[in-house]
Amino acid sequence: MIYLSISVFALIFLRAFQQLNVVGGHYWLAAVTSFAIATAEVAVVLQVVAYDWSAIPWVGLGGAAGVTAAMAAHKIIKGKMREMK
To answer: Cβ(31)–Cβ(81) under 8 Å?
Structure first.
């Protein structure tokens, strides 16, 4: 089930990152991130169907880690992009 947590981590990371892209008006990043979200969504759905209700703790773990990592990563990436200007 570790693959489920990794998939959910990726999905939630990408969704949170996407939200920050939209709020910040970062059109190019938002467009690219959409395709990554689609891939992660399919991976999560396929695994949840296989694991049923026992997936809940693993989904929660991946989600919690993903959202906090996205917030930190977006801050770092946007800071580096500002430095390059």
So the answer is: no
pLDDT in tens, 14-73: 999 899 889 989 899 899 999 999 999 999 999 999 998 999 999 999 999 999 999 899
- Residue given tokens 């947590």 in the structure block: 5
Residue 9 · residue 69 · CB < 8 Å: yes
Name the residue among 55, 54, 52, 75 with its Cα closest to residue 8: 55
Prediction pTM value: 0.82
The token pair at 45 is 């759905």
Question: Quick one: DSSP state of residue 25?
Answer: T
**Angstrom distance (rounded) from CA 10 to CA 67:** 9
Do the beta carbons of residue 29 and residue 21 sit within 8 Å?
Answer: yes
